[in-house]
Amino acid sequence: MKRAWTGWTLAAVIALASAPLAAETPQREKIAATVAARHDATLEALKDWVALPTIAAEKRGTPEGAEYMLKLALDAGFQQAKIIPTDGVPAVFATLDAGAKTTVGIYFMYDVKQFDPAEWSTAPLEATLVDRPGEGTAIVGRGVVNQKGPEMAFLAAIKAIQASGQKLPVNLVLVAEGEEEVASTHFDQVVAVPEVQAALAKAIGVFIPSANQNRDGSAGITLGAKGAVEFQLVVGGETSDKYPKTDIHSSNYARIENPAWRLVKALDTLVADDGHTPAIDGWFENVQPLTPRQRELIAQSIKPGAEAGEKALLGVGRWINDEDYRTSLERFYSQPTVNIQGLVSGYTGEGGKTVLPGRAEAKLEFRLVPNMTKAEAVSKLQAHLARRGFDDVRVTVSGGYGPNETAEDSALIRAQKKLFEAQGIPYTIRPRNAGSWPGVIFNGPPLNLPASQFGLGRGGGAHAPNEWFLITSTDPKVYGLDEVTMAYVDYLYVIAEEAKK
Fold it and tell me: Within a 13 Å sphere around the CA of 317, how many CA atoms are in the beta-carbon half?
């Protein structure tokens, strides 16, 4: 979609340039004009990036994804960028020295989730522009909101500052991984590289570009995120000789054990009889309960009508135990979970096949809260199964990391508050995100840095069919691509100001 330099485009430039400032942004009108003039180029760059997926679970798009990420960083003005090898998918490390007193770390993920084209209304890798009634024009494609759209807007922001003859108000250190969607299996290896660690140690914090704006224009601030551990439980001929090596006739179940039943029995021990409370031995030993301030933040985040809208979005009619909305939210942010993602065994086609499966597998994940760790969770799982005699159940951990937390008075969070207040954007603060990102890699030792998410704009469908990101908005309260880009411009200047305090 070409965006001609006509009246409405000029109006958009004026609106971008005249937005209230949270800190002095030099040559803001010029930067806004540059952002608007480069709209088509930014959009095309996003489309090109979507067309090149990196999917670690499928070993797809590697090392091409890292090479492309390297090119994007250099094109955006990073003076140096290099590929960092890992035992899995490579990462990218880049630095931009603006001669500033403050350094900020930026975390990117360049990988995306798997997809089934048959489930999509448009081709997942073609990044199609579609109309969203009542909202504007959105781009649909795998990775557009999680996280390539917000990340491309950030790159466009630093390009526009430099193209306008300005130096960035902060120095930047970028780390980009290609395994976030498999729980950042080897990301700790990247940050452990002495050169990378030394560069990040100079930063006042690290943030990931995100789309955190709601349909009414309000925004969200999160003070952390749950940790995540992905793993598989396997039972079958490969784990014990009491199971067949392949599917056999079901009549043999009279004398040969069925691995599917064995797996079901093992899984049943992981949760209480209510079907959702974790029952792994010692699971809650180190769980940190919500503080009074965190409960207050949750209560303050509740808006009229939010519960009905959330239930409709999720396709459910009630919460666990028929709890009220506030209680469900407290559970959402504070409960560590043991979730079954999928179960695979035997014949799953139409009709019956009268087989005894030779193998059964469950894909699971933990969500961890402070003060839990990945090592603790995995160790307790293994010990729990061993105590119950499940030595024939193989545990394979494919990735994971612990939770992260950042103080409400850190410079990154203060800057978000200041920006939102100056631009008249209502916002709520959540104690943590119930989803996960590997902020603990920065938040924990040896760096011990604040780690946060930041970004405006809207999108949806992450990990699902028809993932979308808003490009042009018909509601002035909700940001489209250009407004999101300018929000990153302003945020960098506000961070520079807050870092002085």
Answer: 0
SS3 105: strand
CA atoms of 7 and 20, how far apart (whole Å): 22
**Separation between Cα atoms, residue 47 and residue 252, nearest integer Å:** 55
Q: How far is CA 103 from CA 15, 418, 443, 499, in A?
A: 30, 19, 16, 9
Asked whether the beta carbons of 94 and 174 are under 8 A apart, the reply is: yes
pLDDT the model gives residue 313: 85
- Angle at which helices 481-498 and 28-37 cross, to 10°: 150
Query: What is the tens place of the pLDDT at every residue in 144-164?
Result: 999 999 999 999 999 999 999
What is d(CA 343, CA 386) in angstroms, rounded to the nearest whole number?
A: 21
Q: Residues of the chain with pLDDT > 70: what percent?
A: 95
Residues near 128 by Cβ (< 8 Å), separated by ≥ 6?
122, 139, 140, 141
Q: Residue 284: which of 375, 365, 363, 380 has the closest Cα? A: 380
| Strands 433-436 and 224-236, sheet pairing | parallel
Strands 203-209 and 404-405: unpaired
Report the predicted TM-score, pTM, of the whole model to 2 decimal places.
0.90
Helix, strand, coil percentages for the chain (3-state, nearest 5)? 35, 25, 40
Residue 184, CB-side half-sphere exposure with 13 Å CA sphere: 26
Residue 11 in this model has a pLDDT that exceeds 50: no
